[in-house]
Design goal:
The chain has about 140 residues and is an all-alpha fold. It has one domain. The protein contains 7 helices and no strands. It is elongated and about 60 Å long. The chain starts with 8 loop residues before the first helix and ends with a helix.
Length: about 140
């Protein structure tokens, strides 16, 4: 017998917040990676007489380890991968509903989404699609 796990409203709403902030999350990941790779940016080369450092390779490896192990990057990257996978396995209509609700600059209301001809869902149907996708993401994240 298959046991169903219920997703709490808090977890579902957290997924919705993350979906709304997808673009910012992608920017944050890039910014964190850049900050780790280049923690100090000098405006000009101040090396006036030096040769090459033998520690360059070690420094690069150390930076790579920091990127891979940084908790914020790990969580945000995991969320983005899971959301992308869940959406890619969803119908074209479901993907469009999520895109219109969360990924555009001026998100559509449920009424406006339901009024689009090629969506094919009522307002309530759009909400159910949203809930199912958010629940699936939350379950995969272990919430």
């Amino acid at each position: 017998m298959k046991e169903t796990v219920k997703v709490s409203n808090t977890a579902r709403n957290h997924v919705r917040d993350l979906l709304r902030n997808k673009k910012e999350i992608e920017k944050e990941i890039a910014s964190l990676e850049e900050a780790i790779m280049n923690p100090f940016k000098a405006s000009s080369d101040e090396n006036t007489g030096g040769g090459r450092s033998s520690f360059k390779s070690f420094e690069t490896e150390n930076k790579a380890i920091k990127i891979v192990s940084h908790e914020q990057i790990i969580f945000r990257g995991q969320f983005l991968r899971i959301a992308e996978k869940v959406l890619s396995q969803s119908s074209d209509e479901a993907q469009r509903i999520i895109e219109l609700r969360y990924f555009i600059d001026e998100p559509y209301s449920w009424v406006k989404i339901a009024s689009i001809d090629n969506i094919g869902y009522t307002e309530d149907g759009c909400r159910k699609v949203d809930r199912a996708i958010c629940d699936k993401i939350a379950k995969i994240l272990g919430w």
